[in-house]
Every structure is written in structure tokens, then in C-alpha cells.
TrEMBL record:
<dbReference type="InterPro" id="IPR027417">
    <property type="entry name" value="P-loop_NTPase"/>
</dbReference>
<keyword id="KW-0378">Hydrolase</keyword>
<dbReference type="GO" id="GO:0003925">
    <property type="term" value="F:G protein activity"/>
</dbReference>
<comment type="similarity">
    <text>Belongs to the small GTPase superfamily. Ras family.</text>
</comment>
<dbReference type="Pfam" id="PF00071">
    <property type="entry name" value="Ras"/>
</dbReference>
<protein>
    <recommendedName>
        <fullName>small monomeric GTPase</fullName>
        <ecNumber>3.6.5.2</ecNumber>
    </recommendedName>
</protein>
<dbReference type="InterPro" id="IPR051065">
    <property type="entry name" value="Ras-related_GTPase"/>
</dbReference>
<dbReference type="InterPro" id="IPR001806">
    <property type="entry name" value="Small_GTPase"/>
</dbReference>
<keyword id="KW-0342">GTP-binding</keyword>
<keyword id="KW-0547">Nucleotide-binding</keyword>
<dbReference type="GO" id="GO:0005525">
    <property type="term" value="F:GTP binding"/>
</dbReference>
Amino acid sequence: MEILDTAGPEDLLQREGHMRWGEGFVIVYDITDRGSFDEVVPLKNFLDEIKKPKNVTLILVGNKADLEHARQVSTEEGEKLATELACAFYECSACTGDGSIHEAFHELCREVRRRKMVQGKTRRRSSTTHVKQAINKMLTKMSS
Ligand SMILES: Nc1nc2c(ncn2[C@@H]2O[C@H](COP(=O)(O)OP(=O)(O)OP(=O)(O)O)[C@@H](O)[C@H]2O)c(=O)[nH]1
């Protein structure tokens, strides 16, 4: 597994490259900075655009949970947004290590694996359907 921390908004090209390459995404905002929370939806829309037609696999993380006194985004708001984005939500502190950082990454990996398995099954099913159709065609030709 390789984890990449995307560059800030100043390097759009590199960020886009990372997004194309990535299989699972952690969108992190700062609970003490409402502006960073407001950037989550536009970022998710940008990701959707780049990964189209695939569904983006992501989790939402509110960081800097150690700075409770400076909080601008409530836990409920984070949870609500995660529900809207249909993804898991965690609050943590990269500084103190508090919160569910490990669980967040485990959940993301599990979700990437789950989706890969589902996609693999769909692909296998569609190739089986093609083989069945070809055999049916041959049988119809032979009998006519
Ligand atoms: N108190 C506290 N500070 C944090 C935490 N996480 C990061 N910081 C601080 O926030 C500042 C920015 O952290 P970065 O890791 O550079 O943030 P970034 O979003 O990757 O920034 P870019 O490189 O511009 O994308 C640094 O001073 C960090 O020490 C945290 O959980 N709690």
C-alpha cells in the first residue's frame, strides 16, 4: 500500500495525477477552520469528475481534534456531511495521535477491497454472459 499526501492547491496538475492514480481517498478538513470544511464538497465533486464513471472510495476525517477550544465545525456537521457523501467519518488528531486514525485507514482499505471484489464479480459475470451468447448463436446456426 502506498499513501500519498497531495500537495496544496498550488500544484493542480500533480494533484490531478494523484487522484487518477489513487484507489481510495481520505478527505481531511481542519475542525478549527470552517473554510477547510467548506472545501470538502467541491473537492469531492472534483474527484468524481476525474474518476468518472467509477464511484470514488473515500472517508472523511476532521483533524485537529486536540484543539477543542478552537473548534469551528461540530462533530454532528461532520457526521451529516459524511452521510450525504455516503462515506465513513472520523475525528482525530494527527498531533496527539488521538482518535481513530488507524481505524480510518483500515476502513478505507476494507472498502477498496470490497469494491474491487464486487467489480471483479461483475466483470466475470459479464464475460460468462458473452460466452453463453456465443454458444447459443453457434447452436442456433447449427440447427438451422
Ligand atoms: N494542533 C494540531 N496541529 C496540527 C494537527 N495536524 C496538523 N497540524 C499542524 O497544522 C499545520 C499544517 O499541517 P500540514 O500537515 O502541513 O497541513 P497540510 O494540509 O498537509 O498542508 P499542505 O502541505 O499545504 O497541503 C502544521 O503546523 C501542523 O503541525 C493536529 O492534529 N493538531
